[in-house]
Amino acid sequence: MRSYGGIALVVALLACVPLLTASNVVLNFMVVALLIALVGQGWNVLGGYGGQYSFGHAAFFGTGAYVTAILQVRYGVNAWFGLVIGIAAGALVGAVTGALSFRSGLRGSYFALVTLAFAEVLRIVASVAPITGAGVGTLVKLDLRWEAFQFQSRAPFYWIILAFVAVSLLIVKRIEGSRFGAYLVAVRENEDAAKAVGIDVVRVKLSAMILSAAITAAGGCFYAQYFLFLDAGIAYGPWISVEALLAPIIGGIGTIYGPLLGALVVKTLGEITKLMTGHAPGLDLVIYGAVLILVVAYAPRGIAGLLERYRAYWPARRRT
Amino acid sequence: MLSPILLIPAVLNGLLTGAVYALVALGLTLIYGVLHIINFAHGALLTCAMFAAFFAHKMLGLDPYLAAVGLTPLFFCLGYVLQRFVIGPAAHGEDRNILLVTLGLAVVIENALLYAFRADTRTINLSYGFNVVEVGPAFLSVPRVIGFGVVIVVALALWLLMRFTDTGKAIRAVAKEKLGAELCGIDVAHIYAVTFGLGTACLAIAACLLLPTYYVNPHAGNAFVLIAFTIVVLGGMGSVAGALLGGLIIGVVESLSGLYLGESLGQVGIFVIFILVLLFRPSGLFGERA
Amino acid sequence: MTEILRVENVSRRFGGLLALDRAAFTADEGQIVALVGPNGAGKTTLFSIITGFLKPTEGRVFYQGAEITGEPPHLLARRGVARTFQIAQPFTGLTVRENIAVGSHLSRPSRAAALAAAEEVAKAVGLSDMLETPAASLTVAGRKRLELARALAIEPKLLLLDEVLAGLNPSEIRDMVPVIQAIRARGITIVMIEHVMQAVMSLAEQVFVLAEGRIIAMGPPDAIAADARVIEAYLGHGAAQRMRGAAHG
Predict the structure, then answer these.
(1) CB within 8 Å of chain A, chain B residues 221-280
(2) Which of B17, B24, B226, C81 is 20 to 30 A off residue A176, Cα-Cα?
(3) What's the whole-model pTM score?
């Protein structure tokens, strides 16, 4: 699966889903799972490959979502333009927070703390600022035309988010085979050694952060179009920061398909929880938190890591 | 705007609030100073303690100050168990993993409380809850003055513990030089757990002090914990004096910015300080280099 | 002989501790220079200052005639100054080939080219049959060679080796000496911090002795070995006298 052909195959298979089922429940589940896969892939670029764990990816998600929603609602900007500007805005937030953090040499826990703080600041500001509708939130007007990036049925939404995910898979694949990717991983493994071989560590981290933010912001923009409602807790809340890191960690941190696998697992867990206990708020996150701890304790390289371990045993068994 | 009639009460109230912040921060800085981990679960544990104190009052009719006597050892044990049997083993000693495990714990605890008790805000009503004592131009709420006193006592008790008991010396040894301490026969895993337990015990006391004048809901702890992080970073990670001084300073800053900027933006002010300190002076006033 | 490195009156304080006290030395192009001295003398600190990981409290460093004091490590690496670390710092999650390739990438944007170049460098240091081994499972000797390989991969003109022979057994040391000589034969200047005296004697043309932050002696290896001040620095006050007394008596 380590080739562009592999990506094409996976995407083609996934594209068949709306052709195989008309169930809105299934389609909705898959749309949300792919959305988390996208946001998770964004996190994966910075956290998985770069080794910089952000606990505040909501900052980019929410910025993408709010920018595109506000542009449409208050300024009549076309939704597709809104998408582009939303991604740029998210990337800008990434650039600013990254520049501030990395220039100051923040790493590890301190970096995680700062990202958490930035996301919280944005959440608080969004919850009181008039432009976001403060406590009431922002409602994107229903306008079911493809020009307005809204569709009557879920299938077009599904194919669009799948396209976004496909692009993110290609981006990560490209990174893996490039000098930037080698430098990113070197920075993750040993910053001092990286400097000693000529790597501009700050620049590498910053580039990763900007890319990561842009991908995540695209997810935010999509969310705004699909759900048509935002408030500060949705846009900048901890739920998305947690899911953004949970998906890649479960699926396999620092791998191409990790976030996709992980997102499917996370969302399936969420559905199972809902089926068993109803829509009580909070229980799904409890499960997610517990799974996070278990994965870190027993399978730190996620599903991809387990598959690798299994593959290492298999040839030996066949020989005997 | 700057008249003493407004300023003095704001400052005094700030000091009283700041003392409780300092207690929360004290737990956090203790854990960092010894285990060298940033405990992302601190806020959730505080919320947990507040719920415990709330229900102690509601179901057992216990006055929060009395409840503290029972809750403190209980939460010490909780912290001990969490560090010894969850965080320590799961993390395999790697920094990145510890980050994720404490985050996971935070998510589990906070959302378990959300699931069990819904998002409603609860308060308790004490007979003396609204009593005030007059100090100059200020009317200070009695529970908060008591709170201030208790924090001083706790800080003193911790200092005595660290200075004069064997456990305290062991804790200081592990904080300074873990390998050497281990070679001297100190059970590091046990000391780590004891320290974590002390941190959560501080939270239990803080929760009981806050209950008379504050509300309880599953997100309450978070509000305090970002403040606690700001204090710890300002005062210096691992510095007890820094946590206390920082707490008082932040309490006053919050009070004054609440006076001039209004409630919700006051919170943002604290975050901004937090981010600024992290970016420009992460070692804080008294602490070690980040 | 053109001078490639000049360290001028470099001092470095850490709080109350004066780790380096007006240390100075030079290296000419194509030389192998050794920096020796008892533990804690400040040798690694000096390396860190030369390569930009630390700033000196006083003093200046010149490379190829231009001042480089305080420039960041990655810029110096790009200009041709490479270093190894006293405690080997591999990229633990990567294989030997991937490790070296990170260095090769400096002048090669293409992944394929960097990986191929890494193979060449591995051959030069004798790691050819370990290319796919994860760096984490190398022995000490392997890690030292990897350190060396990675530094060579950036095609430096000046190579600073920090105790590259430490922890090696005598046969491993014997294998490394020709590797180092071969590197110099390619025109790379080498400055080495070393405790293994046999290597210093057989490799270095010029030796500088650092003790308590100060350069106390300089010269060719045999002169240094007989220098009383050097003996005292290693063996303590009066040792030179005692040794002379024992030799005569």
Answers:
(1) 226, 229, 233, 264-265, 267-268, 271-272, 274-275, 278-280
(2) C81
(3) 0.89
